[in-house]
Design a protein that fits this description.
The protein has about 150 residues and is α+β, with helices and mostly antiparallel strands. Helix content is about 35%, strand content about 25%.
């Protein structure tokens, strides 16, 4: 990769991330600040784990071990950042298990899905979604003990 293009790529990703926020919030009812307050100060409600049908092998083991408390979910959100659809697909692992629920603060309620691969999808009232990603910062929360190299 040409190192001279790296800063430009960072600027592009920052601009596209802001564009995603604006598109998702185009109805003007909920602001970015409102969503951040809900995620950081809200009460997590109705936590329900779902595993896709037909899961086998290591993914099945990981999903069997996947459990999140309200505190775990809030710690994931505190370490996460907004990602574009492209980043969500290209940079983050997805496992066939999610925790679904709602979070509420100051009269604003958001539905969410936290994937065992350390991503979150927020479902907004206007049928749009915001995606959050948490990389290695969330390894201590989502460590299933299945993928470690015994040599390390």
């Amino acid at each position: 990769m040409n190192t001279k293009s790296t800063p430009l790529m960072i600027v592009f990703l920052a601009i596209s991330t802001v564009a995603v926020w604006r598109l998702a919030l185009d109805d003007g009812k909920v602001t970015i600040e409102d969503i951040l307050k809900v995620l950081h100060n809200g009460k997590v409600l109705n936590i329900e784990k779902k595993v896709n049908k037909g899961v086998t092998g290591l993914e099945k083991e990981a999903c069997n071990r996947f459990r999140l408390t309200e505190d775990d979910i809030k710690r994931i959100w505190a370490r996460s950042h907004l990602v574009t659809d492209e980043e969500y697909v290209m940079l983050y692992q997805s496992l066939p298990c999610d925790v679904y629920g709602e979070v509420e603060n100051a009269g604003i309620r958001l539905k969410f899905a936290v994937n065992a691969g350390a991503t979150t999808v927020l479902f907004l009232d206007n049928k749009k979604e915001l995606k959050l990603g948490c990389g290695q910062e969330c390894n201590d929360i989502l460590d299933f003990g299945l993928y470690r190299d015994p040599q390390l």
